[in-house]
Amino acid sequence: MHYQEDLVGKGLQRAISEKLVSRNDVWLQTKFTSLDGQDLTRPIPYHRDAPVAEQVRQSVGDTLAAYRALEAFVDAGAITSLGVSNIYDPDELAWLIGAARVPVAYVQNRWYEGNGWNWPIYDLCQKHGIAYQSFWTLSGSPSLLAHPLLKKLAQRHKVTPEAAVYRLCELWNITPLCGSTNPKHMAQALAAEHAFGKDEPEVGKLWKLMHGEED
Predict the structure, then answer these.
(1) Is residue 24 part of a domain?
(2) What's the CA gap between 116 and 147, in Å, rounded?
(3) Cα distances (angstroms) measured from residue 167 to each of 11, 141, 144, 161, 194
(4) Considering the chain, what is the average pLDDT of its residues?
C-alpha cells in the first residue's frame, strides 16, 4: 500500500492466518523516508525531532548517515539487503556505491518521460548489478502509452498498452512498481509476462526512441 505500510502488515497477517501464503512466500520491501518527504498531517514511524540515525532505528537527512544506520540492521540479520530511492545524480549514486559497506542492491526512481526515463542512473545500475525499480512508470508517460509503435505491439500480442510497457520493463531489466488495487488491472499486468521478446522490431525502435535516437 502506497504510504500505508501498516496496512501491508495487517494484510500479510490476515493472509498468513487464512493460510493463503506463508511468510517465506512473501518478499517485503520497506522504505525509510526523511521528514521532508513525509506527510506531517499523518502519523510518522519515528520521532520527528530525533537525529537521522535515530529516526532510522525508530522506524525499523544525510544519505550516508541513514545508510550506515541501516547497514547495522543488515549486520544483525533484521534486513537482508539495502537500496536507495529518488537518487537522480549519477555522481551521487557512484559515490554511495563506493562508500557503502553493504552493497547497494536496489535503486527505486521515477522512470518517466519527464526525466528522459532516467537512463544515466539505469546505466549505472546495470554496470554495478543493481536492481532498478521504477515508479510513475505508466502515469508519467502518456506519450509513450499513446505512441503508435507501442499500440501496434500491444495489439499484435493482445495485451493492453499499459501491460506492454510493463513487459518492456521486464525485457530491459527494470522492475516496475505497480500500485494498482484494481484486480482487473493487476491481472492484465501479469498477463503480459513473456508476451513478447526482444526480437520484436518495435522493441528496438522504442528503445532508440526513448533514448532520443529517433523521432
Answers:
(1) yes
(2) 16
(3) 27, 15, 13, 10, 7
(4) 87
